[in-house]
Design goal:
Length: about 375
């Protein structure tokens, strides 16, 4: 049985040797930090074998272990060391191979623009890194898609400006020159030219206002002053504003707000979005048709739907209805007195700025636009909205 003194001798001797070998191993790892994982793991295995071997030799000398016993101990240490080296090399090679596979997958992104995770089973850390890379690539792909869509919108906006602004300006200039040069002198024609100039000026003013609003939305500069308001109030204001246009076209306009909580919104901006939807529905509904505005609650959000009798939107055009200056054919061909195609884009920008969403679908004799807004609180009674 080993004495306490001998045990103490063994402990401090092995501890001292282990400290020296460990420091040497750390220096080696630091110097070879840029080398492969297999090299670093081999150094770790070597530190273990050296510390054990040196400790066995020193203990044998201090405790006068026989040469035969020392040979047995060293044989055991060497065999164990070889096993450690083999395991370290295998693990290092596996990690190195997994790293190369991951590096190859990343390099492929530069060639084909798509990240494909390696099919081999990766160590947990590298598997987590691969998942993170896949998620980052997905987000970058979405960002690129949004950038392409935004660039397409910019091109459409330039085309819109060149057409829908320059065309009426050319007409205004022609009428102004006719009046200035005395080409038109009879009072009825002069009066008609003056009226037309005023109408075109008003139309251009509205177009520029829409363009300015859209630029604020795209720039993220839309400042919202929110307050609690009931859906009935928003719907009522939209119907009141659109009533003259509906009467002039012979379109029946009605609205209703069911029991739903109020919403916390910028009433001016959301009112503008809702008016855009209602006005758009009236413009594309034939005479004697109807437009219905309904407010209710569902899935924890307040909803306002605008249903018309436009004849529907072609299925291939539905995804692009809210794009800048998009005009679907044939159901929504604009007339001479209609907008330039920015109203729905503005409505989408306003609703999304309120953390809401907007959508469209074909329903019955026409289509239905719907907006969803976060509710403010519960307990609002149903009310009928005049329209």
């Amino acid at each position: 049985m080993i004495s306490p003194g001998d045990l103490w001798t063994v402990c401090y001797t092995v501890a001292g040797i282990s400290v020296v070998v460990t420091v040497a191993g750390l220096i080696a790892v630091r110097l070879l930090a840029a080398r492969s994982v297999a090299t670093n793991l081999t150094i770790i295995a070597a530190v273990t074998v050296l510390a054990t071997s040196a400790g066995a030799v020193m203990i044998a000398q201090k405790m006068f272990i026989s040469r035969a016993d020392l040979d047995v101990v060293m044989a055991v240490v060497v065999i164990g060391g070889i096993a450690g080296f083999v395991v370290a090399l295998l693990v290092g090679r596996r990690v190195s191979k997994s790293s190369r596979l991951l590096l190859g997958a990343v390099q492929e992104v530069g060639r084909n623009g798509e990240y494909v995770a390696p099919e081999a089973v990766l160590p947990a850390e590298l598997a987590g890194l691969s998942d993170a890379l896949a998620a980052a690539h997905h987000r970058l792909a979405e960002a690129r898609d949004r950038e392409r869509a935004l660039e397409a919108s910019r091109r459409e906006l330039v085309a819109w400006v060149s057409h829908d602004l320059r065309t009426p300006l050319a007409g205004l200039r022609a009428m102004a020159e006719a009046l200035e040069d005395g080409v038109v002198t009879d009072r009825p024609t002069v009066s008609r030219y003056h009226t037309q100039i005023r109408k075109e000026t008003d139309r251009l003013t509205l177009m520029i206002d829409d363009l300015f609003e859209l630029s604020r939305i795209h720039a993220g500069a839309l400042r919202l002053i929110k307050r609690q308001v009931e859906l009935g109030e928003l719907i009522g204001e939209a119907l009141t504003s659109a009533e003259p246009l509906a009467r002039a076209k012979g379109v029946q306009l009605r609205g209703f707000a069911a029991a739903s909580p109020p919403v916390l919104v910028d009433t001016a901006e959301v009112g503008r979005a809702l008016r855009n939807l209602v006005t758009n529905a009236i413009r594309h509904t034939p005479a004697h048709g109807s437009v219905e505005v309904l407010g209710d609650e569902g899935a924890g959000m307040a909803r306002v739907s605008v249903s018309d009798s436009c004849g529907g939107i072609p299925a291939e055009h539905l995804p692009r209805v809210f794009d800048v200056a998009f005009r679907g054919q044939p159901a929504r061909t604009p007339g001479p007195d209609e907008g330039a195609g920015l109203g729905l884009s503005i409505a989408r920008g306003i609703i999304e700025a309120h953390s809401g969403r907007i959508g469209v679908r074909n329903v019955g004799p026409g289509c239905q636009f719907a907006i969803w807004l976060p509710v403010a609180r519960n307990g609002v009674l149903a009310r009928q909205v005049a329209g």
